[in-house]
Amino acid sequence: MTPLIKICGMTDIAAVEAAIEAGADAVGFVFADSVRRVSMRHAVEMSDYVPAETKRVAVMLHPTADEWREVKDVFQPDILQTDLADLDYLEVPERIETWPVMREGTVRDAAQLPATFVYEGSASGSGTTVDWQVAAQLASRGNMILAGGLNPENVQEAIRQVAPFGVDVSSGVESSPGKKDANRIQDFIDAVRAGDPTEEETIV
User: Fold this and answer.
1) How many domains does the chain have?
2) Is residue 144 classed exposed, middle or buried when 0-12, 13-18 and 19+ CB atoms within 10 A define those classes?
3) How confident is the model at residue 121 (pLDDT cuts 50, 70, 90)?
């Protein structure tokens, strides 16, 4: 089964349109300290271009209750993505799905992993690849959305090694920090959907 595909860090309408046209399952809007951070007004404007079948993800990091309340009420995301510990104090209505972020090196008991989770390195959006062998062990425990250092050139190998439920890319499809490249978005999604070419050759 083709993994869920999330393109994160939308900063302009062109990027949103490129992700939608390429067939992304989810698009992420960053409300945390980042070169990809967007204002509430701009996020709402961009989200108008997202069809109902594509999930709108609010990406946050240690938000205050007031910051989350504004995102929840004004942006009205389909999904909240934030560190697992943040969910202990945030009030998230049932209509909004949660994707807790589990960071490499912090998972002490794999048996306690959430049913669905994002797995990435210590710094979001840094382009740092996690250890795929470790990730593969955790991916068997739930619906892992693999992030961290993915790009059109390595995503097929990442999927082959980890077998994640989904993949999440941001800097790997940019022409410069915060600026998405429509061709790389298309290449990334094409690579995910193409599967492992070595397996196809073996079958033939």
Assistant:
1) 1
2) buried
3) confident
Residues forming beta bridges with residue 103, ordered by sequence position: 120
Across-strand partners of 146?
119, 167
CA–CA distance, 93 with 89 (Å, rounded to integer): 13
Answer for the pair 169, 7: CB distance below 8 angstroms, yes or no.
yes
Is residue 57 within 8 Å of 8, Cβ to Cβ?
A: yes
**DSSP per-residue letters across 92-115:** --TTSEEEEEEETT--S-GGG--S
Q: Is residue 201 part of a domain?
A: no
Residue 41 belongs to domain with CATH number: 3.20.20.70
- Match 């070419």 to its residue by tokens: 197
At 166-182, the pLDDT tens digits run 999 999 999 999 999 99
| pTM (predicted TM-score) | 0.92
Range(s) of the domain holding residue 136: 4-195
